[in-house]
Amino acid sequence: MKPHRQGTPSLPVARRVSSALLLAGFSTLAILGPCHAHAAESWHFSFGAARDGYTTVDAGMAYDAKRGFGFEPGAEVRTAGYLVATKPSYFTADVPEGNYNVTVKLGAAGTASNTTIKSELRRLMLENVSTASGATETRTFTVNVRTPRIKAVPGVAAGVVDLKVPRETVSEARAWDQRLTLEINGSNPVIQSIDIVPVTAPTIFLLGDSTVSDQPGEPFNSWGQMLPRFFKPGIAVANLAQSGETYRDSLSRRRLDKVLSMMRPGDTVLMQFGHNDQKQIKDNKGGPFTTYKDEIRQHVEAIRKHGGIPVIISSMERRRFDDAGKPQETLTDYATAARQSAKELGTAFIDLHAMSLPLYAALGVEGSKLAFAEPQPGKLDNTHHNPYGSYELAQAVATGLRQAGVPAAQWIADGYGNFDPSHPDPVAKFAVPVSPTFTNERPLGDEGNR
After folding, report:
1. Can you give the pTM of this predicted structure?
2. Which is one Pfam family of this protein (predicted)?
């Protein structure tokens, strides 16, 4: 059966690049290749069984650019009227830049199921959805897909985001290509169908550093990757944060411009920088109460000019304890400057710095280790979180949105938005399946504060 899709082929878009291209000295523009002939605005996939109006997908269908969809290399799946993944696997479909409602029908006759789905670069969308044998459940979530191209809008020139090569063009390419990639995970994931349909939906844009950005591999994770899980379908999270960056980098590498070019009136922009901004003091290039506050102001003014709602977030603390077992503060000046900026500019503020301290205190000196990444045995990263730690911080951010009265809070999923950091979820009950990708390469930035 021919692919069932709607819409017309898109304009030139981003695609993944190989290491060979990078070694050959290609610039960021090298990832802006010819259009995908089969990029579609809508896709309707049925796994292993023909259904009217659906494209039938069999287990052996590897991703093919000409076809526009398929399983990524390494997938282990079988189809028998439905899809079963015998290990975490990826399924990809080409789509133009934009927001999409993804609807999945889970479960099947003759088998119980447990399915977790992450999108693009490990963004948690569905967590451990279980069905009994013979039962089905239909779930919808909203995903943002983007490319590096910046379209011209008033006040923003056309161009391209200055991606970090090779990080964002190889290990993080899924965050920027014209493809919607789903990680199918869980103890027994079973999927009958997937519908991918474009939607005009409000968007929460994220700008920040490595503690916010989509990290490509375990054990590293960020609250930005976990945040989509805590929102209902109908609102998208677009994470443009990047490791090692500052408010200054957001301006110079044109990440803010990319946000402004995509943003619709009423959209929300969450901004959390601070860890790497400390280097500006060391390099005698500014500080928290001078350049940092001025760069915050530039972001707020630009977002408001384009009809967006800016939200300033103070950086969570690093893992530091004194001899009495009390969390120490290393980012106080930047948290204070962020708070002052929010007050002076009349902007919503989430004090993640203040919320992180009771969180770490509740976990304790030893227990808090289980919230941070350990890329090598016995080598703990005291700045970057693992999935558990970022899951807790994402709940703090969602709660902060509600407390600040940000309109996007109306989309917070039922049962969330009232997180008490002094009473975190028990580590033993955390069960989000790990992704198949692993790295012991530390995220960029904050090198002096391991």
Report:
1. 0.92
2. Lipase_GDSL_2
